[in-house]
TrEMBL record, chain A:
It comes from Fulvivirga sediminis. Pfam families: Peptidase_M16, Peptidase_M16_C. InterPro entries: Metalloenz_LuxS/M16 (IPR011249), MPP/UQCRC_Complex (IPR050361), Pept_M16_N (IPR011765), Peptidase_M16_C (IPR007863). PANTHER family: METALLOPROTEASE (PTHR11851), PROCESSING PROTEASE (PTHR11851:SF224). Residues 52-160 form the Peptidase M16 N-terminal domain. Residues 181-353 form the Peptidase M16 C-terminal domain. The lineage of its organism: Bacteria, Pseudomonadati, Bacteroidota, Cytophagia, Cytophagales. One of its GO terms (molecular function) is metal ion binding. This is Insulinase family protein.
TrEMBL record, chain B:
Residues 14-129 form the Peptidase M16 N-terminal domain. Belongs to the peptidase M16 family. It comes from the Bacteria. This is Insulinase family protein. Pfam families: Peptidase_M16 (PF00675), Peptidase_M16_C (PF05193). InterPro entries: Metalloenz_LuxS/M16, Pept_M16_N, Peptidase_M16, Peptidase_M16_C. Residues 169-344 form the Peptidase M16 C-terminal domain. Keywords: Hydrolase, Metalloprotease, Protease, Zinc. One of its GO terms (biological process) is proteolysis. It comes from Fulvivirga sediminis. GO terms for molecular function: metal ion binding; metallopeptidase activity. Coiled coil: none annotated.
Amino acid sequence: MLNRTLPPITHNISTFDLKQVSKTTSGDVDIYYLNAGTQPVIKLEFLFPIGGNYYEPRPGVSMLCLQLLKEGSTNYTSKQIADSLAQFGAFLDINPSFDAPSISLLCLNKHLNSLLPIISDILLSPSFPDEELETLKRIQIQNLKNQNRKNNVIASKNFRNALFGDEYPYGKIISETDITNITTDDIKAFFTSNLSQFEIFVSGALDQHLNSIIRNFQNTKPKAKYSNSSNIQYHFQPQIINQNKDNSSQTSVRVGKPIISKSHNDYVKLLITNHILGGYFGSRLMKNIREDKGYTYGIYSSIVNLQYDSYLVIGSDIIKESLDDTLAQIRREISILQNEPISSSELDAVRNHLIGSFQSSINTPFAIMSKFKNIHMHGLDYSFYNNYITSIQSIDPYTILNTANEYFSLKDMTIVTVG
Amino acid sequence: MIKYNSFTLDNGLRVIVHEDKSVQSAVINILYDVGSRDESPEKTGFAHLFEHLMFGGSKNILNYDEPLQEAGGENNAFTNPDITNYYLTVPPQNLETGFWLESDRMLGLSFDPKVLKTQQKVVIEEFKQRYLNQPYGDLWLKFRPLAYKKHPYQWPTIGKEIRHIEEATMDDVKAFFYKHYVPNQAIIVVAGHVDTEEVKVLSEKWFGPIPRGEAYVRNLPKEPIQSEKRFMEIIEDVPSDMLTMAFHMPGKFDPEYTAVDLISDILGREKSSRLYQKLVKEQSFFSTINAYVTGSIDPGLLVITGRVSENITIEKAEEQVWSVIHDLLANGIEEAELEKVKNQAESTLVFSEVEILNRARALAFASLSGDTNFVNQEADLIQEVTKEHIEKLAPMILRETNCSVLYYKSKEKNA
């Protein structure tokens, strides 16, 4: 008779294989590539290292400039670009970012050669038609209006603003007027100074297609190198900002503060400690505030890594009446993390979950490439992941307790609520 | 092409194995053939509430999530009008932990009153988060009963109203479990870094002893053929007017389904589509517009939805949509246009199969058609659609008397 009360023996995951990305160049362009996967697909991504909001003269320029790339070039009109992409069943996505935005092409590899001339034209000689800018501005203003009706969106914006302030690029909040005032000249100037340098990331079943990509970009002219000469600083002050809305059925909460970057020695310890607090479904915040109290559908704690700054944010949408108790419970969970060493069974679960979810997050060539991008963007190499895994395996309860004391002290956190 | 092996246990549980050793994890996907369409109109939202309860401890295991996390696994689930689907990813060496957990909750639940109480609260917060606390959030809550008069698709999976979730009792929970959560109404797919022989042994060991349940005969009210245009108007505190139009169409496994799906693509898939080019780009009647199909198993909907520009009335905007439709009906479609949407549909299918979990889910869902290999026929079904077929079908679907229209108006704009 099967004894169902006894779990099968589980094995710790000691090793797995993270395929490494290789590098080549085409003219002045760096190409990072990964040949992997069983489906005949390719993802070709162009990343603009200095193309994000951080570098824009006014809010909205980076986003509109990126979107306008698809709306006309020397040899193709907006409609021809849309038609050709669709004709080859390809999808061209814009991925805006504070730091390094990108555009990515997803296609069947058999169509890559037909698509390369269009993509090149979009990237190297966009035409930025006035009427297309006007259409995009109209659409973006409506999107913004819609977004600004969502408590969770406003809470996230207000939170960033509270951390970094109005003058610092990461703290700015875009307004309708910002969008209205953007001109074609702003867009053209930003393109020339910030979007004409890019790196290529290509993954999937590449076969001979890598050579086509290399050939395609070999005549790209060398570009001036950018240096970050920004002198702007921000001065973080913990604050409490409440925006009450009578007609809301829930309140959006954000709690957090600026924190160490990915390259800091304590970063992995911080990540593990954060995971215990609110990084996964079995986290302490989730167990307490969702599974025990039923105040919310979900509560998470995350570390956000921007290029020049990082921050910790605990976020949730909760029953309005439970706001005070939710904040009290967050305080309580942090205090427990700071004062009571974690049990060995919880630590085992956290270890295995972290490593297991890392393993399942590298199941596709695109995901493996994105793991590479995450280190490359921060000037790190694969030793980051080796260190990540060994730190998870070796971390002890007191290191976690000390990390919680060092980085999760409550008195310097900002609290933002909306609704 | 997704290769698979399949077998059925004596208790009726269907098992499908898809080996792909290039993937480092193993996945288990269990589909229970029950969705919100199987609920009573007086107790809606139950299939989904039940999904939450499946994580609250089973017959012999106090907690589902913790042992899985200890084994390095992750999991989640979703409920829709047709099915309830549970899935997990686990390191291959710990595959048996997945079998242990999934089989125990198929065998029986803890039926702990505290779990029911908490999950009722959690689901009510989910209801608020998704449906009430954001602009247009209640659109489908209000629109479904206009489009469906008889069929249970008239209520959303989350439930008609919060009261139904609040009123669920432990007796309801038990009855639902023993009716639907039985091996003969489930399909399990094991995929990734796995061996068919090992899966056979594990399936027999853990699922084999679970007794077969009574067969559930689905006998849902059929949606009558719509014979006149339906209309509804809502005025709410939203930033702009939203137009939604829905036309009845065949279900996912119907031979005509793919052709109608392609009609929706021609009308409103992405920026090269007719609606976008004519009504957003050439003339600015809308700021966004698209068309899609709901893809349900019972007859579904072809939906056109768009946000109306500020200086345009929603009435005028609707007229413009009809003029695009009438142009398609009067003048037919271009071969190149059909080629284009076929290519889009083909690549979407291939892209969706990059992820191992998606492949597992597709295999399970295809099995509901009666033939798991349906999953590998979809590409051909797309290619087989002809211009003539589309032109024959379009007038049957895109007629006014088959249409439900919702004006979701902005209070501010229409003050």
